[in-house]
Amino acid sequence: MRKIFLFTCFSFLFFSACTNVDEHVYDKYSEKDFYGSAEGANVALAGVYAKIGGNWGGVGYAGADNGWYDLNTMSTDEQVIPHRNTGDWQLDFARLHLHQWLPTDYIITNTWNWLYSSIFSANLAVAQLENANADPAKIAEARVLRAFFYYLLMDDFGSVPFYTENTITVDKLPQVSRSEVYQFVVNELTNNVDKLSTNKGGEYYGRFNRWAGYALLAKVYLNAEVYTGTAKWNECLAACEKLTEGGFSLHPGAANASSPLGYQYYELFGDKLPDDETILAIYVQANVVSRNIFTIRSLNGPNALSLFGFNGWNGTIVPKSYYEKFSDADIRKKQFLVGAQPGGVTYTPEVTSLDNPGADRNAGVRNIKFYPVAPMDGGGASNDFPIYRYADILLMQAECHVRLGNAAQAKSLVDAVRVRAGLNALTANPTLTDIYNERVLELNWEGHHRQDMIRFGTFLQPNDFRGASEEHRKLFPIPTDALNTNPALKQNPGY
């Protein structure tokens, strides 16, 4: 009887406890507690970083196709995918290179949608972290990420819809001027960069630490005159000089028999990127996190099959005049394939047509700068992608010095990049043309060339396949879908 009584009492206590909603629940966090923790803050940020890696459907900064990378590289003179006279490849890429793009083009719409989706995710992370009183460094990181996406948006499209809270419907978003977006980005960066972690590598590989934040700020200042009409060379120089506190240096370019391209230099474009030079990278593991298609997309099928064991896509080529800018002594020329290749393929540098009837199957110089690393297959490889690296910063510093009338201070900076590549030092102080040419050689296929061409006044000049372009081509059009969704938006002039 005693046992029955005690069992009954415990049963009532159990049922009473189950119906008491005031009890503490130990297997769940409140939203504030979760995002206020270190683990929860990282979860909020991870949702934003996931937007950067390139994947199918035009998503991401770089790594896959039909998105931001293609829009900003194939509109320049450094690469293009020609329509082939065998019927392969859509015409969108050729139209980009010919400066004939339209507001309805798939790549333009994809880029716009990716950027606004990323801004939505960044707004969400900022709100979650601020509401939870999270670590100020994590809040700052979310704000810097949002500034990064707005910077890319204003760079491509100029005056754009703007919002920092996800409470406004798309059809009501106000359009603000390019200079207003620029000022927002500058304010966000200057208010938050110094709050970011100074850690390099480890959990901060592929994340905005303080050094990546200053690299971004330097890029914004570098192009300030394009965005606002007012140059900010001193401010760009100051941001670049902050990078010296991060302990960065040029990665060695020495000969290396174990490298498929023969030099340590190409470790900058392989798997885990070296942190002596890499400031911000996209982490890639094919079929898991992002992908890197750039080599497999360039090579012809039998050539890629012979080299890697799977067919190439026979897509991207390097225009002949761009390839010819590289001297034979330059180790950076090793990234190009021309002439007879394994697999019985011979690439010819001459390309007679991009669109009608299109290029011959083996026409065009190919690029293997991102020589595939495993895991890899016919859908891409696992090469990480450098968004910012120290060679770029040195050339930015050199440009600022020359523009400010201090060319003598620029010489050692340019020479360091040249000598690493196997070239002689300049025989005189660098000119702006020298710096532009060095950027062409050093930063090929890394996503900076459209900005450089616009800043140096070469973007509208004729190239191998077209005559001079109209002024309005310095901006891409706002996509037709966006205009239809928000009738208050004004299209960029000329479209």
TrEMBL record:
Residue ranges constituting the RagB/SusD domain according to the UniProt record: 345-495
Superkingdom of this protein's organism: Bacteria
InterPro entries associated with the record: SusD-like_N, SusD_RagB_dom, TPR-like_helical_dom_sf
Start and end residues of each SusD-like N-terminal domain: 85-222
Main localization category: membrane
Residue ranges crossing the lipid bilayer per the database entry: none
PROSITE patterns (alphabetical): PROKAR_LIPOPROTEIN
Pfam short name (any one): SusD_RagB
Sorted UniProt keywords: Cell outer membrane, Membrane, Signal
Subcellular location as annotated: Cell outer membrane
CDD domains in alphabetical order: SusD
Family, similarity comment: Belongs to the SusD family.
Protein's UniProt name: RagB/SusD family nutrient uptake outer membrane protein
Organism per entry: Xanthocytophaga flava
Taxonomic lineage of the native organism: Bacteria, Pseudomonadati, Bacteroidota, Cytophagia, Cytophagales
